[in-house]
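Example record

Each entry pairs one chain with its bound ligand, S-adenosyl-L-homocysteine.
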Amino acid sequence: MILDPLLSPIDILGLTRDEFLDRALAFGAKRPRALAIYRAAFRDGVALEPWVTLRRPPIVNSHVEGNTIKFVQRHDDGLETESVLIPMFGRAGQMTRTLCVSSQIGCAMGCRFCETAQMGLMRNLDAAAIVAQWFGATHDVGERPKNIVFMGMGEPMDNLDSVLQALRVLCDHDGAAMAASNIAVSTVGRVDGIRRYGDFVRQRGFHRANLAVSLNAPNDEIRGSIMPINRKHGMAELREAMLSFPLRPKAAICVEYVLIPGVNDALDHCDELCAYLKGIRCSLNVIPYNPRRDSPWRAPTEDEVSAFMARAIENGQFVKRRQTKGRSVMGACGQLGNPHIRRRKFVDLGVPGRDSGHATQTDRAAPGCNDEHGGDSCR
Ligand code: SAH
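Structure tokens for the complex follow.
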């Protein structure tokens, strides 16, 4: 079957069916056989021919808290990706899992409350490495996720080409066959990225892919003090981008709000937030702050969370609470990251920042969450 021994094996995880077929035909495979190989790779986790590889980073560590599983994949360069499988319970009590994937190793966004931000950005993941997290969960851990949320390490809009290619692969009917409606991409609020993602979502097959936005503050002053990105894209601009995002009937943007005591949890903040959200079709997802390492802030109490949510409801805002899962294994929202790895990088915000003339130093930013992590809770 192998016609040309000089061709290196086809690394299948980053490819859609059609991309794979093109290459497989070059190896001399017949179309039906190539199709069977593609299906077997994604559905059964097996490589049927020696000229195909399912190359993925091995899982070197996993942590379990209740039904929540955090697993770590180690790449050839020694860097690690963290992903979390979070249990979700349906109305009838049946359990499904949401997989929270990383789009980068580390993150350059510098959000003050986030553990991943402490690492800085190490590097981007390519589409195959993103899909490898789904593959690892499904075939190595043995838990096929129903939902995928891009709420692990990294800012998806900073690595959007790879994220979009990963979505194409994950939604391929002959492969992973995820439903676009069960996928959510979460952003720190990069307006350029929201627009591009919106264009992608307008394409056939992706209409129901979801957007989540980490708002985390009721006004520019507070947002700017905890999220450096706000100095580039202020909240007015962000609001415009959310309003122009293509939403199917009944769909809603998931607006994430990490509730941090003493920072953004006052009832006045809630009123201001709800006024800002008026007119945007959204679900407000309140995430109790999970203290990162060396955090200057504590977690909110139950009463504080309830009071904030009750106020949002009084304001007529649809609101959900994200249950905290995985905190003890540092797998909850905003807790992913290897504390031994630190890199300081600069984010060019393109505007004069307060900290420096042009660039803002970042050694912190985004990750890990969902109902936990968005999934079902966000639509
Ligand atoms: N960079 C993207 C994807 C990461 S998602 C984004 O910002 O949306 C990570 C989610 O967890 C974000 O909503 C973020 O606001 C939230 N988060 C970050 N740190 C957190 C923490 N310490 N406690 C609770 N949520 C946190």
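The chain has two domains: 10-53, 59-343.
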